[in-house]
Batch of 2 targets.
Target 1
Amino acid sequence: MDFKILLEIVLLGIALSMDAFAVSVTDGLTYTDINKKKSFFIAGVFGVMQALMPLIGFWLVEIIARLVGETGGADAGKIMADIVSWVAFALLLFIGGKMLIEGIKDLKKAPEEKEEKKFSFKEVLYFGFATAIDALGTGVALHSDLSTTTTIWLHVSIIMVITFVISLIGLFLGKQIVKLLKGKFEITAIIGGCILIILAVWIILSHYLGI
């Protein structure tokens, strides 16, 4: 493998990890009990999910192509890419909208009535799935780009490591913003909700406009 191909994989990994970065910033903003162990768990979930989805997309197209031919596999891949983009949009819009509404409501509450948002394993897994599902489309694209099926494993391994590191950076950044806001968690919830809503819109725009 030459340097150019390796650079392309790294750039792909960085591009795919931007969704996870945005959500990890949101987690750092909103979870009040984040520690080192939980940070590594969140980054690990995002990394694994971001690697798993392209792998699933790649092998689904590979299986379909072997069953009905390359044309059928390509058509199925395009349909799947459209569907997963809208699923990711709906999931992130729902989570972001809910977070935004709760943050606005908390602005009107007395300090003693406000509840701090605690770390949730279930929610982290949900976030990981929501941010990575659109990467199924990347797996579809990789199927037509890669010359051998063994190369996909190198791609997803690099994607996983890059996403893990960038997610840790996002969590750190989110926690630093909280310090600047001096623990005003209703504000961080509003910021986090806005980030997720923007991310949802971005996924649709990037899918259809190629940006």
Note: Residues 3-209 form one domain.
Target 2
Amino acid sequence: METKISKRAFSLAKKYILAGEAVAFHTETVYGLGANACSDEAVRKIFTLKGRPSDNPLIVHIHRDYDLSRLIDFDPPYAAALRQAFLPGPLTMVYPSKGKVSSLVSCGLETLAVRVPASRTAQAFLRTVDLPIAAPSANRSKHVSPVTAQHVFDDFGGEIPLILDGGACEGGIESTVLDCTGEIPQILREGLVTREMIAKIAGDCLVYLPRKGEKPKSPGIAHAHYMPKCRTVFCRSAEEAAACFERESAKGGKPVILCEHAAAETLRGYRLLDLGADDLEMAARLYALLREGEKTATLLIGIEPKKKDGAMAGVLNRLHRAFATEENGN
């Protein structure tokens, strides 16, 4: 199969979607691998292409004017205010829902995760197809998420017919996933819309801690996830990272250190990937640098950033999973 990369082939994308194919498309967070959420066959194709576990639910994407009531069974009182504040944008909201789309989307759960992306490319695509589109990130299961069309092609070139190229994804990490099935909203996966931001609108917000052996309530909460294809190690300090670097170099390896800008300043002379100086910059650069690192390093050495709160919680979540640390509580 030839994989086309196009900036505006929305009518062609609709043709493929109606034929049961999967199409990759730009969002403001990461590229998605989308298919018709109402078709069992199309949704099954997403799981097969990604090698995704069948118990890992998908997010349904809709355009901003799509009638949400067609997809959900209950809309809690605080949800409208959250939609007004944050959508379109990097927030996925999970509602009670049964039988509105393919049961494969939610993996047997009586809920549905719905997102309205802000990306112009995504909105044009979704308006053209005018269907709910089930879409996880457009990468192989557990691999680093894609933030450019080339990243998608690297994983799926020759296996999908079309990639809708909207440029680099400015957000850089996946959307916040928020459980809206209870009286108080609860974050299932952290992202750029933070607990503090949600609580300011809804009055309160909880953060879910996944338990070992529990069926996933949200995508992206597996212990080992977003992982580069090279060996990795995670360090607590620049000194520890430097020692790992020296050991790998002495064995003839090619180590690379991935760290925030403050740590990079103390490690001049080492091979570095500089994440940046603040949480939003680090979120935007994380996946691109993980993919860059896997191409050149025999050992990718991560350093724990100092900041922990705000949007940095989402960055730390991805770092811990990319390096398969035990910080997740899994």
Note: Confidence is low (pLDDT under 50) at residues 326-330.
